[in-house]
Design goal:
The structure is a homodimer. In chain A, the strands form seven sheets. Chain A has an eight-stranded mixed beta sheet. The first copy, chain A, has an eight-stranded parallel β-barrel with strand order 27-28-29-30-31-32-33-34, surrounded by six helices. In chain A, strands 2-1-3-8-6-7 form a six-stranded antiparallel beta sheet, with helices on both faces. Helices cover 46% and strands 17% of the residues of chain A. Among the domains of chain A are: 99 residues, ATP-grasp fold, B domain (D-amino Acid Aminotransferase, Chain A, domain 1); 136 residues, Phosphohistidine domain (Glucose Oxidase, domain 1, 3-Layer(bba) Sandwich); 160 residues, TIM Barrel; 151 residues, Alpha-Beta Barrel (TIM Barrel), CATH 3.20.20.60. Chain A contains 35 helices and 34 strands. By secondary structure, the first copy, chain A, is α/β, with parallel strands linked by helices. The interface between A and B is large, with 48 and 48 residues.
Chain lengths: 887, 887
């Protein structure tokens, strides 16, 4: 029975593999094969496939006989081609044994170099290279690496042995040891090895080879690698491949060397051949940083022929792979070898620059360019960040959640009121709270950054900060905040009010003191790039869905609306009216309304709010001239607005003329056991119709006024938290009555739509009924996720991190839409809605609207529009275009 | 064009209608027609159909010409048959105009009697009857009734006129007025009428007739009728019919009379001819209660021929309708007329008795008998109730929600501790609380009844009380409870600790003092009847579903398990383990566990609980010998168990040896913003595996021990709150590991199953995955309803009553399953679950398991079992049998 092929040879100008075989050969193996076929000088070798790795694990960490045979056949072929033999006394073949999975996992798995050396072969190597010191140094390194990687001999045991020789010789550096010293080192290393492993160092190179292959396969499932795959969501791989490759040496002498180069600048994207190298050195020397590497220009001067060959290879590879290449090369005795090439990692800025340049160089088309940039990479371009040159010199004092990207620095304050007061005095502040609440909005708005000690990625602080584009580190558990004394401590370090601190919301880090920030610019390239994305997005065609795929911004204030528009939003997808109530004047009237004991009193208080609310809407309508604005009527439970401080309660009691105690009773009656599932959203609209009436009137009056100014106003009124169409009908009727009366009174009519959020599971399940009455649906996936999972996003901190850790959840469902469960409800909602209204407009306006995977899902689910925070609009534009291309 | 037929004649031994035409003729009209066709003496007349009523409303409260014509043709036919004429001077025809819908709505709509009288006809009536006083009295009554019903003339206006004549004549009673006096009354009435209506009383009988028909049709949509239909969930009717029928008079003299009779006793069901009548009286006199009616036996003595005829008719009608009949009769001048017959309303006891008797008399078959008893009627038979003879004499002091049926009386106490203390002293107590919490369990358990001032039908008090079968009036808002002073007041009335009070949980009423209760017995009839229901239920056949339809009880304690078994439960459908933690000893250890700061400490505390928990399970297993017991592992959030009183906190701090302040910090960290959506159920099982480990070990040890006693133990272990199969897998693995180790240790193996609750929407949506690993599903429709609607059952009191009132919701979804929304999830869960496990056992264990409509839904949805509180098991058995017959 044929078991298939498990080992693939490369060398002598041809290879059995190719670049497309990454799944089987791993990235490194596939590229080594591809380069060999391209005629690029690659030291010959062979790749043991990922299938063998899978089999190794299935087979209880052993190899079937046929794999052993296949490896040995390929080893023979390699020896024949190299005209050398593993372990040979005269002409020993040395090989490297390296890991290489289909997805790059740098540094996570094991490598063994210089394999094949033993007491005989080391002599052969010395003779052949004419460099005894080199040979014994290589043997020493091999024993140490093999001992460490394959047998787990502690590093310090070898270091101790080396140190003892250096002390005996009274020298400081390794390179001061000569061949004889190194022979002694080897001898001591062999003892160290034997003591630790309880058996002598294997002299048989085959034994060495199989042990090394074992170690590499074994490293696929080491803790480090498992964690790396979990963090980077790498799934579905069969395992790692093992590359057994003949060694070339950059430390053969002064005509040898080794280096790394990029075909373009990985940090700016500039089309400039960028690299570093060291003569007479091995790769590990470059990494160890003992010597400072040279720039490639030095190579050009010193070895113009080698440099020219390198440039030629670079061009060939970039042209072949049609992407920026990251290459490793070694020069042995003046002869150039390429040991690795891969598509180079790059910054967001470089990613965009390279993608745009490659299109202009006609190497790739626009679609390909769009697919080349990961949406998350754009995030870096849209926020201030800590000056990278400073970054190297400082250490964070604490780490929390990277709740809202960007960096900030300012003076620490502990209350929202202080933040506002200090801001008015011209100070930059960082607002530090255990957690924030809607009352803190004013302070959050003026703070440079927000830091909390509790709460998750969707805590109030995090959500609001992302919406505002304010950097935020949330849930930083190491902080102990004492609100009363106005201190914050980390370990023994205590910060007082007014002390400087800095935040990096992109990585969730907190720094002491004020740190220099840089303000990245939106380059012209990015604009051009996003225009291509828009073209693709706007030409999207799906069966049963209107053409295109829209992007809107969530914005509650004119300034945010403008920001969204500037970043390319095609309308406001969610304008939350509740945030508007948090300025002092409105809040006061709103609180009087909340505790009023009669409809008349409520109406009276609401009348005072109306003109102010009207102004809010006017500003947004003006900002969005010609673009639709989707306004959500009041959503949260009333108690979110109730005063909590003694002062505020006393003041309110005073205004309405009752005792503080009586007021407290009314306030208590607003408390709910599970406010998220309580009296909120349209439920308030039904029981207190006067609230929505006021809001609709404010919308109508603002729309009429702004339209009179010659501005095109397209209001959409969204009723939240609908669970049955029977809630929607009377609320729509009420709203239309008011709109009509304002239009009649003013003689001006404005086009409008009235839609609903689908955020209650029951709404999705009965969408066919609701669609009969609603002009559009917007999926509120935050609440939909809460209720579909039964997770309160305020409380999941106690178990969701553990769930993600244990892989019970792939990801926090508040960050990435749960496509299987919540997604099914979205799909049902769309299908059922369109079953009674074929062209029903559907959109998403939860936090997920800015998440690339979720955007892809929304496209597949047939949604017309996604909406996200203004600062994520460029990311969403790119992700949406990718979704269109992908599907 | 033919518009169809709208008017149906009956009289002269034949009728155009029949009993099956209720939808068209209303119940009364259809039965009048049927009786006419049966040869029973019915005064002739005609019925204007419900179609005409529908048309009347569609036609803006007017009649098309063809209906007017049809009515007048039938009137002529009636006049011809009666040889009388409406308004005739010599021989005037008098008619009654009565409503009659397809479903009986007693007293909700209008009636006009004696129609056709005017100044001429009254003379004719006087002459024909030879009784001038009778004629003028009839005219007086007619003017008053017409004025009141048709024109809305206030009752007191006529009363005043009558009183003035009585005062002028200086008499007290109406019957002291003679013909001349009544003529004066008529004259005054006509003035009253003219003053109020602004036009004279219509003398044209046709005008009278059409106005009366208008009034009856109009009364179909009066407020009273609307409300009645809403309360009784009467839907889908076209309208009322109008019956125009020639009048007969029971007040013609001493050979005349009128009465009501039942073919069997409506309160006991005994086969005994039961009725009351009055000689020389009209129906309204019987109702007014001025004279005491006679028993039928008196009629038998006084008018044996008439009585014999009545018995003959009664037998004929009962045989014809095959059900107990409620009849109205009038004797005019010794001649018997039947004015109405219908299936009589009856008590639950009578319903069962009659159904069983009719089967034994071979009038109906068992299926028909099963359909004859409304499941809700059984409720009366299963709880103590207030002695009906006492009921008439007392007035409730307050009304709340009928949260748990049955009556109770006892001395008022205000804390659970007091309840327990007083109980130990031999007192009967009523526990009065604003609301109860799990800590009150002990007190609730010993209380005769529970009374709360807040909370709804699914509040803690209500749910627990129903589970215990303890009467409960919840959410009684009129009560002001002062826990500190231990007083309760209603208006100005103040009750202190130790005062007696009584509750009627069936109707939600509160009484002052101790009231006599009667303990109803489960009659042999009921047992027999339910056995028939079981036979039907057990033989249920559905495609793709195992045969039969099981009933289980929810029970947490052996005593409840026994009660369930006694009432016919075929197993325990839900045994909640959390209630078991509320006895003092376990609670103490559990609290130590909750606040422990290490796994070791938690395990230590759990070890102390285990033997106690094992005993709980042993008791239940013994009680349910041979029947399955489904045990749910810990479900609620931990903070439900934390101590709240200062004393308890101090005590706990003492035990674990930390300061009260430090303990408070730990307790606070357990608080959640939305505990219903927080860290609970299997989420605790994942993060603190030691808790479920302890519970599973207790189940295993109890099962082994009891099985050793020769008892058949069938444990089912249910993991709550699963949202993804990835939660279920490790929890199942853990449980099986522990079961295996106990079985190995003891050498005894017990059959078991491990299943899950489906109560998170996501679980239903992804049931195909979960079914791969779970042995069974039990739908927890309480939580499923909470999350599908986004309603916290603790908080819905603020809007759900208003929603039901405004018909936004048909019913409180926590009482009756929302079949459209939540039901869709149940159906999806069953279908998806069975898509990967064809024979997956499914059941329901929420509060809905005892609701007849929901049981019908569960049957249709393909569930195998419903489970409900022990006290509702008989109701569920009946409802389940009806579901099988119906579908």
């Amino acid at each position: 029975m044929s078991q298939g092929k498990f080992v693939y040879f490369f060398g002598g100008g041809s290879a059995e593999g190719k670049a497309e075989m990454k799944d089987t050969l791993g990235g490194k193996g596939a590229n080594l094969a591809e380069m060999t076929n391209l005629g690029i000088p690659v030291p010959p070798g062979f790749t043991i496939s990922t299938d063998a790795c899978e089999l190794y694990y299935e087979n209880n960490k052993a190899y079937p006989e046929y794999i052993v045979k296949e490896v040995e056949q390929h080893l023979k072929k390699l020896e024949a081609q190299m005209e050398m033999k593993l372990g040979d006394h005269d002409n020993p073949l040395l090989v490297s044994v390296r890991s290489g999975a289909a997805v790059s996992m740098p540094g996570m798995m094991d490598t063994v170099l210089n394999l094949g050396l033993n007491e005989k072969a080391v002599e052969g190597l010395a003779a052949r290279s004419g460099n005894e010191r080199f040979a014994w140094d290589a043997y020493r390194r091999f024993i140490q690496m093999f001992g460490d990687v394959v047998k787990g001999v502690p590093h310090h045991a070898f270091e101790g042995a080396l140190e003892s020789i250096k002390m005996e010789k009274n020298v400081e550096n390794d390179n001061e040891l000569d061949a004889d010293d190194l022979k002694k080192v080897v001898s001591r290393y062999l003892s160290v090895y034997k003591d630790a492993v309880k058996e002598p160092f294997p002299q048989d190179p085959k034994v060495q080879l199989w042990a090394a292959i074992d170690a590499v396969f074994g490293s696929w499932k080491n803790e480090r690698a498992d964690k790396y795959r979990a963090i980077n969501k790498i799934e579905g791989l069969k395992g790692t491949a093992v590359n057994v490759q003949s060694m070339v040496f950059g430390n053969f002498g002064e005509t040898s060397g080794t280096g790394v180069c990029f075909s373009r600048d990985p940090s700016t994207g500039e089309n400039y051949f960028y690299g570093e190298y060291l003569m007479n050195a091995q790769g590990e020397d470059v990494v160890a940083g003992i010597r400072t590497p040279e720039k490639l220009s030095t190579l050009q001067e010193g070895s113009p022929a080698v440099y020219a060959q390198l440039v030629e290879i670079k061009d060939k590879l970039e042209n072949h792979y049609k992407d920026m290449q990251d290459m490793e090369f070694t020069i042995q005795d003046g002869k150039l070898y390429i040991l690795q090439t891969r598509n180079g990692k790059r910054t967001g800025q470089a990613a965009v620059q390279i993608a745009v340049d490659l299109v202009k160089e006609k190497m790739i088309d626009k679609k390909e360019a769009i697919m080349r940039v990961a949406p998350a990479q754009l995030d870096q371009l849209l926020h201030p960040m800590i000056d990278p040159s400073v970054m190297k010199e400082i250490q964070p004092i604490a780490k929390g959640l990277n709740a809202s990207p960007g960096a900030a620095c300012g003076k620490i304050v502990f209350t929202a009121e202080d933040a506002e007061a200090w801001f008015l005095k011209g100070e930059q502040v960082i607002l530090v709270r255990k957690e924030t609440s809607p009352e803190d909005i004013g302070g959050m708005n003026v703070a440079q950054g927000i830091l909390t000690s509790t709460g998750g990625m969707t805590s109030h602080a995090a959500v609001v900060a992302r919406g505002m584009g304010t950097p935020c580190v949330a849930g930083c558990k190491e902080l102990i905040i004492n609100q009363e004394n106005k201190t914050m401590s980390v370990g023994s370090k205590v910060f007082k009010e007014g002390n400087w601190c800095s935040l990096d919301g992109t990585d969730g880090l907190v720094y002491e003191g004020a740190i220099d920030l840089i303000q990245p610019e939106l380059s012209g390239n990015l604009n051009e790039f996003l225009t291509w994305a828009d073209d693709i997005r706007n030409s999207a065609k799906r069966e049963g869905v209107a053409d295109g795929f829209g992007i809107r911004a969530n914005a509650d204030l004119p300034v945010d609306a403008l920001k969204g528009r500037e970043f390319g939003a095609e309308g406001i997808g969610l304008c939350r009216t509740e945030h508007m109530f948090f300025d002092e004047e409105k809040l006061k009237s709103f609180r009087i309304m909340i505790v009023a004991d009669s409809k008349e009193r409520r109406v009276e208080s609401l009348k005072k709010i109306m003109p102010l609310q009207t102004e809010d809407f006017e500003g947004i309508f003006r900002a969005m001239d010609g673009l639709p604005v989707n306004i959500r009527l009041l959503d949260p439970p009333l108690h979110e607005f109730v005063p909590r401080s003694k002062r505020d309660i006393a003041e309110l009691a005073d205004i309405i003329g009752i005792s503080k105690e009586d007021l407290q009773v009314r306030l208590n009656s607003l408390e709910e056991q599970n406010p998220m599932l309580g009296h909120r959203g349209c439920r308030l609209g039904i029981t207190y119709p006067e609230i929505y009436d006021m809001q609709v009137e404010a919308i109508a009056r603002a729309a009429v006024k702004v339209q009179k100014e010659g501005i095109k106003v397209l209001p959409e009124i969204m009723i939240p938290l609908i669970g049955t169409y029977k809630e929607f009908i009377p609320l729509r009727e009420n709203a239309e009555k008011i709109l009509k009366s304002v239009f009649e009174e003013t003689g001006i009519t404005v086009e409008y739509q009235i839609g609903t959020m689908i955020e209650i599971p029951r709404a999705a399940l009965t969408a066919e009924d609701i669609a009969k009455y609603a002009d559009y649906f917007s999926f509120g996936t935050n609440d939909l996720t809460q209720m579909t999972f039964g997770y309160s996003r305020d409380d999941v901190g106690t178990f969701v991190p553990e769930y993600v850790n244990k892989k019970i959840l792939k990801a926090d469902p508040f960050q990435t839409l749960d496509q299987h469960g919540v997604g099914l409800l979205v799909e049902l909602g769309v299908q059922r809605g369109r079953s009674t209204k074929a062209n029903l407009k559907t959109s998403i306006c939860g936090e997920h609207g800015g998440d690339p995977d979720s955007i892809d899902f929304c496209y597949r689910a047939g949604l017309n529009v996604v909406s996200c925070s203004p600062y994520r609009v460029p990311i969403a534009r790119l992700a949406a275009a990718q979704a269109v291309i992908r599907n």
